[in-house]
Design brief:
Structural class: alpha/beta
Number of helices: 9
Largest sheet: 5 strands, parallel
Order of helices and strands: HEHEHEEEEEEHEHEHEHEEEEEEHEH
Number of strands: 18
Helix content: 25-40%
Length: 318
């Protein structure tokens, strides 16, 4: 352990003198995976950690490859962080406020400091739209209010499930949950005309409640959702299908091309429409899964390394 600590200190000192070759913005699974790959490619790499990545909300994941007994989000991040640092990545707290082009590279402004980098990887993720209700964060931490049926729908098998939605996304998620339970209720809290799939819900046996919610109360291991009018309903699990907002402002500032949902469009190598700017994870259009984010990060890191090799004339022509 002492030898590892000495190596980490030496690497951090080396990074303190020089700006990184690659700046990774975001210290979630995508950002940390890319940092490990780039470190093993012997690239000077810095990760900016703005705090509280989405993965830290995971109480226990059972679909993370290699962990059949499950693993918490905090443990996933801890292991990935240690691995990235083992290969020389410097991880610093701070929020990148802006990105601008600087010749063939970029300048990032971080709390009054300028950081130059030859390439940027955005792993900034998304922000979940939780129901605006007292106690909802505690319910998420106890895995009673959930945000990802693909991640943990299996654990809802045979249970009484409520889906909170304000558009057809809620209907689609309620239909998906019928894979696991025949006791699914969609609580639609948006305008009535925002829900166009009522006939399909009826065909699938999904109960529909058209009512705004006042609160989510936790009683032992169940959730009681109180609607206006004093009626209460009790569920084993509640899924929020209120959508997300991508953290894509930095890319917008560089005029990167966005998809219709506001997330970043990338090519098969995770490159955006801006040369030298890459993206991986939930901020990219696709499936919001840790396994997907880490795969995208591996692809992006490899292409970043090869791109810099080409720029430096270190490749053999095809």
């Amino acid at each position: 352990m002492r030898g590892r600590a000495v190596r980490l200190v030496a690497r951090r000192l080396a990074h303190a003198v020089n700006d990184p070759e690659v700046l990774i913005i975001g210290a979630g699974p995508a950002g940390l995976t890319a940092a490990t790959y780039l470190g093993r490619f012997r690239r000077r790499t810095m990760v900016m950690d703005a705090g509280a990545p989405r993965a830290c909300w995971i109480p226990l994941s059972h679909n993370m490859p290699g962990f059949p007994a499950g693993i918490t989000g905090a443990d996933i991040l801890k292991r990935m962080r240690e691995q990235a640092e083992e290969y020389g990545a410097v991880i610093r707290p701070g929020r990148v406020e802006s990105l601008v082009h600087d010749g063939e590279g970029f300048i990032a402004q971080v709390e009054g400091r300028s950081i130059r980098a030859r390439a940027i990887l955005l792993a900034t993720g998304v922000v979940d739209h939780h129901p605006d209700l007292p106690g909802v964060e505690r319910a998420v931490q106890k895995a009673l209010v959930r945000i990802c049926p693909i991640c943990d729908g299996y654990e809802a098998t045979g249970k009484a499930v409520a889906v909170i939605g304000d558009s057809d996304k809620g209907a689609r998620e309620a239909a998906f949950m019928r894979t696991y339970s025949d006791r699914v209720t969609l609580i639609h809290i948006g305008p009535a005309d925002a829900l166009t799939r009522r006939d399909e819900l009826d065909r699938l046996g999904v109960e529909l409640v058209l009512a705004p919610l006042e609160s989510i109360d936790i009683e032992q291991d169940r959730v009681t959702a109180l609607s206006y009018g004093g009626q209460s309903r009790t569920f084993d699990l509640v899924y929020s299908a209120l959508g997300t907002s991508p953290n894509a402002e930095l890319a917008q500032g560089l005029k990167a091309r966005l998809a219709s949902d506001g997330r970043l469009e990338v090519d098969l190598h995770q490159a955006t429409s801006v040369p030298g700017l890459y993206a991986a994870g939930d901020v990219v259009r696709g499936l919001n899964q840790i396994a997907v984010a880490t795969a995208e990060a591996a692809v992006a890191a490899t292409d970043i390394h090869n791109r810099l090799r080409r720029i430096d004339g270190l490749t053999v022509a095809d």
